[in-house]
Design brief:
Blueprint lengths: L12 H32 L3 H5 L13 H7 L2 H33 L6 H13 L4 H10 L17 H12 L3 H9 L4 H12 L1 H16 L3 H6 L8 H10 L1 H4 L4 H5 L6 H27 L11
Helix pairs in contact: 1-15, 3-15, 4-7, 4-10, 5-7, 8-9, 10-15, 12-15
Protein name: Putative aldouronate transport system permease protein
Family: Belongs to the binding-protein-dependent transport system permease family.
Main location: membrane
Length: 299
């Protein structure tokens, strides 16, 4: 048989020009989006003397960690960071347990009351009770000024439950039946079969929950009156207003760093608050595109 000759697709001059224009525009848009982050990063490492000279700083002559040393030497900033870390870790674990177990139960037809419960969950995605009823519920439960007031009211999401239910629907019931024949009970099936297959889903929703808890702001404004229990985002907002008051006032004089400009301290605080999510995301990204059933069923 004679081989069919391969003909290369030739682009016209108009196509090449159009592609070049698209690439140029996208590069400009990308640069405009990245420039604020780069500017914040540069200012956070700028020396106080160079910053006071004014002008647009694109690359500092001398890099310094003085703003980071100041922030990490203050108990106020460290305490707020620890509270945000507690919310992100404990809140994410609690949310994943509640969301995954509820979604798995709803995905199995043998569960009693499945349809009414599904209807109630669907209602939560359509109607929001509002700020005042939510505040009254938290107050009546005695959780004002408690960190649990930032976790329990948002411990799960109806939308996430429905999405994860669709994930569990794709797991064949035959896997559970085979496990029960081998002597597994419901808890063994859940921990040995379902959870290992659910790693991609748990990683994706875990990242969503972690980002939400780490960025907790409005709930803390409503429920937390004690400044010693402020999460990091509340502290950052107050630093934008008055950094000396937000950091406790005396911290700078105690550490001999009172001459540091407030702007460099604010930029350093923004970088520190962004780093944890940037570090976690690459480890979870690989799970997003993975199929849950790869290698679990042999045909």
């Amino acid at each position: 048989m004679s081989k069919i000759p391969k003909t290369a697709i030739r682009e016209s001059g108009f196509d090449r020009a159009f592609g070049a224009i698209n690439v140029t525009i996208l590069l400009l848009v990308g640069a405009l989006c990245l420039f604020p982050f780069y500017y914040v990063f540069v200012i956070s490492f700028t020396t106080p003397e160079e910053y006071r000279q004014g002008g647009l700083l694109l690359f500092p002559k001398t890099w310094t960690l003085v703003s980071y040393e100041y922030l990490l030497s203050t108990s106020t900033f460290l305490r707020a960071t620890g509270i945000s870390a507690f919310l992100a870790v404990v809140g994410t674990l609690c949310s994943l347990i509640i969301t995954s177990s509820l979604s798995y139960g709803l995905s199995r037809k043998r569960m009693r009351g499945r349809k009414p419960l599904m209807f109630l969950i669907l209602l939560t995605t359509l109607f929001n009770p509002g700020i005042i009823p939510g505040y009254l519920v938290v107050k009546e439960l005695g959780m004002i000024d408690s960190l649990w007031s930032l976790i329990i009211p948002v411990i799960t999401s109806g939308w996430y439950v429905l999405l994860m239910k669709g994930f569990f629907d794709s797991i064949p019931v035959g896997l559970e039946e085979a496990a029960r024949i081998d002597g597994c009970n419901d808890m063994s099936v859940w921990f040995r079969i379902i959870l290992p297959l659910s790693l991609p889903s748990l990683a994706a929703f875990g990242l969503f929950y972690a980002v939400s808890y780490w960025n907790t702001f409005f709930s803390a404004v409503l429920f937390i009156n004690d400044t010693a229990k402020w999460p990091l985002q509340i502290l950052l907002q107050n630093m934008l207003i008055d950094s000396s008051t937000a950091m406790g006032g005396a911290a700078a004089s105690d550490t001999g760093m009172a001459s540091i400009p407030s702007e460099t301290k604010k930029m350093a605080a923004v970088i520190i608050s962004t780093i944890p999510i940037l570090l976690v995301y690459p480890f979870l990204q690989k799970h997003f595109a993975k199929g849950a059933m790869v290698g679990s069923v042999k045909e």
